[in-house]
Design brief:
This protein is an alpha+beta fold. It is built from 6 helices and 21 strands. Strand 18 and strand 19 form a beta hairpin.
Length: 536
């Protein structure tokens, strides 16, 4: 009985298991169906007209799904709209087939590199300076977020506004810029409204003053041609100190008097020599009169002359000894009155910046007692990297901003360059002379200095956001239609906080993409992908 009952319950249990697993099977089946549909439709939602059949029969929607722009305006599918030859067009890479080095690598060795403007560093076929007919000048639409043109006067800008000039593109290039055809690519948006949705803003190529600067570490110091360290002439004791730290002095002022036994000995020698010289002069006078009267021989007269000359030489040597001790010749009186202390005198006008002596202190010639500096002129000593030293020349303008300064800057000129490179820092010492009429500059303070290696009063410039690096060159995107932009290779120079100088590839008046230019860069880089064509 039990076995028969179990046989009747077995099918019922199996049915319940199937019913319990049915939701799982339905979910898995639904996922499989969605995956199948997505694979065959490219995961693209069907159009409204496809679902409900609206619109006239056979009417095709004006939309290019591949390039996301209206089909009737798609320059990639219809290159004739942008003036290109449809018969000579590579739709995969968006460039003329005859110049497509990706599809035809043999072009790289058959003269394609000749399309290069060596003067301006851009492709010859895309050089608006040499070919003004390709320039696309225009008026900017109203845009409150657009960058404004500033004066570009480097004297009034902070140090971070003048980094070094842009690097040489060849240094980091992954392709030969003379053969790369990125400049032939155009980027098209669906409409003008889509530009704002993508965060794209426009700016204009302008002319403005620009300067190329090298920003380096620097230190202030006293002008060593207007600086003096003073030590006593003799060892002794400071009798008096006449000037204190920070006082102004004139050339010749006595800063201190030094008592010394050496001065006493030199003074005694001078007095003896002075008496001997006086006696010798009188003896010579008597000998000459006696010789003329016939009372003395010529030999006696000559002997008196020799004694008098010897006394004069002795007096001269004693006087020089006193002068060497700091006692000047005018202080020597005819009656033997002269100072008995050695003065320490200021050799130039300036300020006492160091005083290391007090009254009664023992001193010696090896010790510096005073330092005098003319602070109206200072030196700025800079450490220029060896790689930039060749750009610096004598006479170039230097703008120095001390670390403790807020707005003030000091301007000078390069006056000296070292002939050697520092073995430890691999930098070259460069010095500039600057004025300090107010005395605000402090010696040994650090700061940053801009060496203006080149200044252009009317440089072609674009907002810095417009410039993008695409792998072999710097590029900007020039507006050639309401929603169409041409890639333009450029050679860049100096830059400041807002603008970058363009040495070749653009002319003033052209409209370029500024904010959001990275969006267009990503579009042109897509041409490097697909069919095995990737940048190496």
């Amino acid at each position: 009985m039990n076995s028969q009952h179990q046989k009747h319950l077995q099918p019922l249990s199996n049915a319940r298991s199937v019913v319990a697993a049915l939701p799982t099977l339905l979910v898995l089946g639904g996922i499989a169906a969605i995956g199948y549909w997505g694979h065959h439709t490219g995961w693209r939602a069907p159009k409204f007209s496809e679902l409900f059949g609206s619109g006239p029969a056979g009417e095709k929607e004006d939309w290019c799904a591949l390039h996301n722009v209206p089909e009737s305006l798609c320059i990639a599918c219809h290159p004739e709209l942008s003036g290109a030859n449809p018969a000579d067009w590579c739709k995969e890479h968006g460039v003329p087939e005859s110049k497509d080095a990706a599809c035809h690598p043999e072009l790289l060795t058959t003269g394609l590199a000749q399309d290069w403007c060596a003067e301006h560093g851009v492709p010859e076929s895309a050089c608006p300076t040499c070919h003004p007919e390709i320039a696309r000048k225009g008026e900017l639409p109203a845009d409150p977020d657009r960058a404004t043109v500033s004066s570009g006067a480097h004297e009034n800008e902070r140090k971070e506004d003048h980094p070094a000039g842009a690097p040489d593109p060849a240094a980091g290039a992954i392709r030969d810029p003379r053969t790369c055809q990125k400049h032939a690519l155009k980027v098209q948006f669906a409409s003008v409204a889509s530009l704002a949705k993508c965060g794209v803003h426009l700016g204009q190529v302008v002319e403005r003053p620009m300067s190329d600067s090298i920003l380096v570490n620097a230190e202030l110091d006293y002008d060593r041609t207007r600086f003096a360290k003073l030590a006593p002439r003799v060892a002794g004791t400071a009798r008096s100190v006449g000037r204190a730290l920070g006082e102004s002095v004139r050339a010749g002022d006595v800063l201190a008097l030094i008592d010394s036994p050496e001065i006493v000995r030199a003074r005694a020698e001078w007095l003896e020599a002075q008496n001997a010289e006086a006696l010798g002069a009188r003896a010579l006078e008597r000998a000459q009169r006696s010789s003329e009267a016939g009372f003395r021989t010529e030999g006696e007269r000559l002997a008196a002359e020799a004694d008098a000359r010897e006394a004069q030489i002795r007096l001269h040597n004693a006087s020089e000894a006193l002068v060497s001790l700091g006692i000047e010749q005018p202080t020597l009186g005819a009656q033997g009155g002269l100072t008995d202390a050695s003065p320490v005198r200021a050799p130039l006008a300036g300020i006492v910046v160091s005083c290391a002596v007090v009254t009664g202190e023992s001193v010696d010639p090896a010790r510096t007692l005073f330092e005098i500096a003319d602070t109206t002129h200072m030196w700025v000593t800079m450490d220029v990297p060896q790689s930039d030293a060749h750009r610096v020349s004598l006479g170039e303008e230097v703008i120095f901003r001390p670390d403790d300064a807020r707005d003030e800057v000091v301007v000078g000129r390069v006056a000296w360059m070292s002939t050697a490179v520092d073995e430890m820092t691999r930098t070259v010492k460069v010095r500039a002379d600057v004025g300090n009429p107010t005395g605000a500059l402090r010696a040994h303070s650090f700061g940053r200095a801009q060496i203006v290696v080149r200044a252009s009063p009317q440089a072609v410039a674009v907002p810095t956001d417009a410039v993008q690096w695409e792998g072999c060159c710097f590029v900007v995107f020039v507006r050639v239609g309401e929603a169409i932009f041409q890639t333009r290779k450029v050679r860049v120079g100096a830059k400041d906080s807002d603008y970058t100088e363009v040495l070749g590839g653009l002319v003033p008046g052209e409209i370029v993409v500024t904010t959001g230019s990275h969006v267009l860069k990503s579009e042109i880089l897509k041409s490097s992908l697909g069919a095995g064509c990737t940048d190496e």
